[in-house]
């Protein structure tokens, strides 16, 4: 499908469902449509997802990036209104990374009847950790992901491991509700100093950014303690975060958790095998999340 030949490196902007439908009807060879769902403000982490998608479906495949800031997944007082919108730059970044098209619908296009009455419930997995801090967040994510899967009809969908709980919930939704799509997780991309890439990093002042490095430092300290077991992992990470709580500006911890990725439940002190060490904290007005995978 790669019809863009030199010239304009930006991916084609697809503003509505009709245009998307038209494109999909003449798109890729069977089995070779990939989607990367985003809320825009794309960065190198998203580019990595797009490159993974392109690599997977090949030159003849079709890679669509969705850009939609989904109001349903933001709670009252969250950053919906100030969420960065950078569509022109997004088209270029997506195109450079290998996307064919960027589907960037309006809220009316996605929710033509207004806020949907029927929604997808994320269930207990969506009530813990991020879900406990952001009630309803994963119902909003599942609802829009389900809709975007219907609209883009991909064979494979790529999500970042940085949003580990989102990835777990979306995987579970695809399994439980028989979505005919393969969900692929892509490792987190970090700055050289360890900060996980996030569209929200642009909110950080230089001082806040320095304080925010405690998140990845804590996770790496936890991972370094893996040979001594789950309790040591938690303690090593918690010690870094305790220090960061009195930094200037401080890191205000929301949660630090060692998680069994199977059901996204707390990993007990006897847990062995894979685990996810996850952290959420606020620095200034910015809420950040990060995680690493640990072999115990
Ligand atoms: O990870 C995100 O950017 C969003 O939660 C997603 C998956 C695009 C749904 O709005």
Describe the model.
The chain is α/β, with parallel strands linked by helices. The protein folds into two domains: 12-186, HUPs (Rossmann fold), CATH 3.40.50.620; 199-291, Pantoate-beta-alanine ligase, C-terminal domain (Pantoate--beta-alanine Ligase, Chain: A,domain 2), CATH 3.30.1300.10. It is built from nine helices and ten strands. The chain has helices at 17-25, 44-57, 87-97, 107-110, 130-133, 137-152, 164-176, 206-224, 230-244, and strands at residues 12-14, 33-38, 62-67, 101-103, 156-160, 182-186, 251-260, 265-266, 274-283, 286-295. A six-stranded parallel sheet has the order 1-4-3-2-5-6, with helices on both faces. The chain has a four-stranded antiparallel sheet with strand order 8-7-9-10, with helices on one face. Strand 9 (274-283) and strand 10 form a beta hairpin. Helix 2 (44-57) crosses helix 3 and helix 6 (137-152) crosses helix 7. The longest helix has 19 residues, at 206-224. The mean pLDDT is 96. Bound molecules: pantoate. Pantoate (PAF) binds next to strand 2 and helix 6.
